[in-house]
Amino acid sequence: MIPITSQKTTHFFLCSISFAKTHQIEPFSGFGKLGVVVIMEGNGNESHGVELIVTQVGDPIVVQPSEETEKGFYFLSNLDQNIAVIVRTIYCFKSEGKGNETAVEVIRDALSRVLVYYYPAAGRLAISPEGKLIVNCSGDGVVFVEAEANCAIEDIGDNTRPDPVTLGKLVYDTPGAQSILEIPPVVVQVTKFKCGGFVLGLGMNHCLFDGIAAMEFVKSWSEIARGSPPQLPPFLDRTILAARNPPIVDFHHHEFAEIEDISDSSDFYKEQMSYRSFCFSPDDLHRLKIEATADNDSEISTFTTFEALSAFVWRARTKSLKMKPDQKTKLLFAVDGRSRFDPPLPEGYSGNGIVLTNSICLAGDQVSNPLSFTVKLVHEAVKYVTDGYMRSAIDYFEATRARPSLAATLLITTWSKLQFHAHDFGWGEPVMSGPVALPEKEVILFLSHGKQRKSVNVLLGLPVSAMNTFEELMNEI
Q1: 126 burial class (0-12, 13-18, 19+ CB within 10 angstroms)?
Q2: Pairwise CA distance, residues 149 & 57, whole Å
Q3: Mean of the pLDDT values across residues 293-307?
Q4: At the top level of its lineage, which domain of life is listed (predicted)?
Q5: What is the pTM of this model?
């Protein structure tokens, strides 16, 4: 094993890892890391002048369930198949009366115990004979890394916008992985800061958890850390969302449609990317809803804040990318289907219960009409999601193995109702929490903001010139 050298002389370093089995915790066969980044604002060109150095302590290990768990292959539904991407999030903890001396031990031990309930998270992804993702419940364990930072949590700055360069150092990145199969479904990094606080960084494969299921997993984990059993044990049987035999596709599924990019929007993305977070206060959201109903159309009298905000940012992005009038543009967004299935999914369902719905229109029609035009499209897309539509979507994938196309597309995912703040491992609720990065350039994320969680942060990345236009449109609210 190569020792980690002094952080005074080494900025980026990879070390090999030895492999030796112990009780429930084993070294992980991967690579360690030592990262140095400069904390940035804006588009990543301006510096706070604070250098964040994250140093790995010891070797990565794997944390196994504290008790023997079920082995074998674990079924993933077709709703799990389409979103096998790693979602990286951080939770920042700082208690006035409690330091971080025991943070690693408490979180690691609670993880070992929560994996008894969520044992698929301790497995590894594999491919079934049918060519679909499954989980090999081998009990190999969750990769766990301890690290230290050279500064206070406050020095991280504003984490309300994606920052894969800076915040990415707080989530372990499996090096050398050539495919999603080589990345463990869950990886954990605990980074202790000089101020006595610490950051819990998670990398979780979306095929294992959607946002709601992920929050329930972390909540159960935190409850165990505080000495209590999980209040809501997971419902693990995903075969309740298995495709029908034979598949029955009785809806059009334009979410999978490939749209020709006649506007050459891809040329924009050759520019430097700019990442921004725009905060919509309750007053901003109220003004949006008034604007969206300016034509007094009774058809959209019951539309939601999400529909108004989604319509607004979709329209603004279309303008910012200067799409041609005859360019088709598609909106994709996820709807939680848990209560929409018949019967509803069981409480604590631990897989993906979200279904993609869509709307397509011409860019020229969108930008030349009032906001209410786009709101109607979003509203109808939400209404479309019924039990029949969702079962048809599951069967469509079974029959075609198609993936949703992102050409000329905006994908909105909303985390505004997820309880990121409600996770207390013994140090109180997180002082900050949120995503590290956006998974694709076509994605916009909605995240709740403020103590009352009534404001919404809109997180996105755009080429610099397009972002300048988008920002101007945001200021018109």
Answers
A1: middle
A2: 10
A3: 73
A4: Eukaryota
A5: 0.86
Asked if pLDDT for residue 69 goes beyond 50, the answer is: yes
Sorting pLDDT into bands at 50, 70 and 90, what band is 31? very low
Phi and psi dihedrals of 173, rounded to 5? -110, 115
Cβ proximity of 171 and 90 under 8 Å: yes
How would you list the strands of the sheet with 443-449, edge to edge? Answer: 273-280, 455-463, 443-449, 409-414, 328-336, 354-362
Helix axis angle for 103-117 and 211-225, nearest 10°, is 120
Catalytic annotation present for 206: yes
Identify the DSSP state of 327.
-
199-233 in b/e form (b: 16+ CB < 10 A) is bbbbbbbbbbbbbbbbbbbbbbbbbbbeeeebeee
Tokens of 234: 């997971």
Q: At what angle do helices 371-383 and 282-292 cross, to 10 degrees?
A: 100
Phi then psi for residue 453, to 5 deg, are: 60, 30
**Structure tokens, 282:** 């309750």
Give percent of the chain above pLDDT 70.
85
Q: What is the pLDDT of residues 373-413, one digit of tens each?
A: 999 999 999 999 999 999 999 999 999 999 888 889 999 99
Q: What is the pLDDT of residues 139-160, one digit of tens each?
A: 999 999 999 999 999 888 766 6
What share of the chain has pLDDT > 90, as a percent?
68
Return the structure tokens found at 64.
């196994």
Residue 175: cis peptide before it, omega within 30 degrees of 0: no
For the segment 165-190, the average pLDDT, to the nearest whole number, is 92
pLDDT of residue 432: 86
Amino acid at 19: F
Q: Is the pLDDT of residue 163 over 80?
A: no
The continuous run of DSSP H or E covering 432 comes out as strand 432-435
Specify whether the CB–CB gap between 23 and 62 falls below 8 A.
Answer: no
Asked whether the CA dihedral 198, 443, 179, 392 is positive or negative, the reply is positive
Contact 234, 118 (CB under 8 A): yes
Range of 27-41, 213-227, 286-300, 434-448 with top mean pLDDT:
213-227
Please tell me the predicted confidence (pLDDT) of residue 475. 86
Lookup: tokens for 39: 């904390």
Place of tokens 């929490």: 433
Spacing of C-alpha 106 from chain mean position: 25
| Nearest CA-CA partner of 411 in 356, 363, 463, 456 | 356
By C-alpha distance, which of 196, 201, 188 is closest to 101? 196
Q: Is 426 left (phi over 0), alpha (psi -120 to 50) or beta?
A: left
DSSP 459-472: EEEEEHHHHHHHHH
Confidence (pLDDT) at 387: 98
Residue 414 CB neighbours (<10 A)? 21
3-state secondary structure of 444: strand
